[in-house]
């Protein structure tokens, strides 16, 4: 099994959400290298980066003043396994 | 190659390269015997620990409220004396009805809400510190992990944390959850998180009935709110909105030292909406409440509703109309009491007068606070639930669920508590 498959497999079998550091430790992969791998998986459609402020937010007048948007950005990037989408 | 391995060629090439790089790094990278870890990693080893994460989060929450309760009383007293002075001047205005409207309706009503500006702003200062330091992201992660076990995750806790401020932006913040079922469940449970508008109610009654333990009492209400939100999410995910949830990996930002400017900006962003509401919605509600009281209409309305609350111990007409006005905005509950008991002096004084005139015990006061924590969200929240779900079905469901639950909890607490306090 390749390292990219290991990432998706680890995510699928995880009991709850993982931090990037935690996943790096489990798979023995450097955090910076792991970030690049996740980006690749996003490009290939295996993962989806959950980003706040997409279509719905563009219609909202609050924009830069939005507390929700700012707070969600403070949590850093979040990647979701695509096959989990209903 | 693609056919043999069942994957696209570029994926296989990238996989091989990443595998080679990872192996190479493992072989050639020499780490010092004592590895130097970043400060964030050291803190995270404790803050994100599977067993310690939640107790630490609760401890942080406790510290946050202790800060609010230690620092706010002198500022609150200052505001109370200011409004007392204003009400005295206004009561001399003629004609007599106008003086009464200004003193009892506007100043006592809106003023009793505005005296809670110090604790509310201090709460927002503390939330801004948590947010800017990077701990909020950890809290969201730790609680998300807990919520995974109940089938709800994927940034659900972020909107729930926002619910500590106001449910309206919190419901809107559920837009960051792209799984529609997780999003709907989060929208429905967000109102159980105790919003800042409820804080004046807690402070009022905690100061009057639980003088030496007011901090613990208020924190218990916030924790009960979170537990109800989590239990409701579990129920809704199992029974009403079933379906799979996602698997996530989250990148956490490093810890940072918050700046004064950042804290001030974020506190103001949250707090200004409380001030605007006090000057508009609460002002209007207080004038209407005063007019209905002055014309003798309010009491019969309250008496008609009051029997519903009798099993919970607060079956008098004054709390009934207070809860009714709270449908418009939760701050109005305190404002209504301020208008109905206009002679009381100060926050603790108002709470004590309510207790003496209505014959309330600490048990009834706690049941009343629990009821206000859980019962129907304000109309602005219901409207935003309607907008975000695109249907009246869900705001009506939310109103029914929360009010039924609130009544059940308040009755249960009073009836069981009465056995032990008899």
Q: In percent terms, what proportion of residues of chain B is strand?
A: under 5%
Instruction: Give the helix level of chain B as a range of percent.
Output: over 70%
Poorly predicted residue ranges of chain B: none
- Compute the separation of the termini of chain B in Å: 80 Å
Number of helices of chain B: 20
Mean pLDDT of chain B, as a whole number? 86
Major sheet attributes of chain A: 2 strands, antiparallel
Taking Cα atoms only, what radius of gyration of chain A do you get, to the nearest Å? 15 Å
Order of helices and strands of chain A: HEHHEHHE
By DSSP, the count of extended strands of chain B is 1
Class based on secondary structure composition and strand pairing of chain B: mainly alpha
The DSSP helix count of chain A reads: 5
Described by the principal axes of the CA atoms, the overall outline of chain A is globular
- Model regions low in confidence, pLDDT < 50 over at least 5 residues of chain A: none
Q: Assembly state here?
A: heterodimer
In N-to-C order, the SSE pattern of chain B is HHHHHHHHHHHHEHHHHHHHH
> Largest sheet of chain B at a glance?
none
